Amino acid sequence: MAQPKAVEALGNIRNTPELWQKITFTFLCLLIYRVGSHVTAPGVDVTAMLTFFQNQGQGGLLGLYDLFVGGNLSRSTIFALGIMPYISASIFMQIGAAVIPQLDKLQKDEEGRKKITQWTRYFTVALAAVQGYGYALFTSGVTGAVINPGSGFILQMVLFLTTGALFVMWLGEQITERGLGNGASLLIFFSIVERFIPGIFQAFGFLSTGAVSLLSLLAMGAVMVGVVAGVVMITLAARRIAIQIPQRTMAKGRQREAARNHIPIRINSAGVMPIIFAQSLIVVPGALAQFSGNTWLADVADYLAPGTWLYFVLSAALIIFFTYFYTSIIFNPADLSENLKKQGGFIPGIKPGAKTAEHIGQIVERVTLPGAIFLTIIALLPIWLADVFAVPFQFGGTSLLIVVGVALDTMAQVQQHLLLRKYDGFMKKGRVRFRGRNAGASF
After folding, report:
1. Which of 61, 158, 260, 348 stands 20 to 30 A from 166 (CA)?
2. Is the pTM value of this prediction over 0.85?
């Protein structure tokens, strides 16, 4: 009797020593991260912090940050900042390369990329220290969860949180270099996934208490399945631009018939970043009002509260804007056209050089629009459904985008390892071949 394809693929993984070592090393790093997530920073009343976050709910900047760090922020652990300072530093350097010619030039050679990596690490230290200082003021001033507030506590908190952030950054780099997949993305993936099971039990708890009807829960489950399928479809979807690259016969020096290939232009090149940028801007008035006590900012935050018409309109506009903005940063048609020209390749019917770059840019603009609309729906649908079905919880569209994207990238790498050794993988050949490693850096 033939074994199922998934079981056969798991056996192939076990019979591939290099791949098995990478997977084992990755799980070991994730286990260390999980253990560190239970080491509380000294001087903080964890019960008071958890109560504060429960009263605030999952919305807002703090709730979004806490989601990405796996609840470490609300539990005040030494990994409270998680991998986010490193992610933020990487994004800043990525944006800087798009506007600063010197950085863009450094990215094009190996030594330059090493310098940028080093600068990113230094920037991570600075960001972690600033965020640690802000968190120390937040815990002692806003939440009142500090046992002995003062300058000593602030200095101690900055030291612990900065050290924890640097250790998490090191773990992520080790996973990227010696493990499987992109380390930073996997740490965020693990932080989100580990909260899924408690969320499922909580949903069934609402059902047992009568807070949610069985029909509403089944309807929400059906919608979630449909959303996951849509996320997978859009994540894999790409517009393929046909290209031809001439091949030469070394013996006679004659040019043979051009080899046909294609350039994949992903519909959702920006990943989840537009949603994060948009949500971060919308919650700024509320965060400032909470820290400053300004009544005018509090009124603005009420107008922008999730569920209001202004929130939906502004969120949609910001997500669409940031989708185009971030896509323009990570995807440069001019560089792609220049690389294609150096290889002697061309798009049939399009002149090489500026015309090719213009043609690619037009295609990117057209395919980005459905991606932006999809991101808008994913971001706003959970809020709308929670109101329609009258349930006291929301499923996170942002979380689904990250989890699906990272899972597909990791499975693609497993697939490549297996195919290199002539094994069958989990998926049919070529299904996720076009997905690049840069997707992991942008979640």
Report:
1. 61
2. no
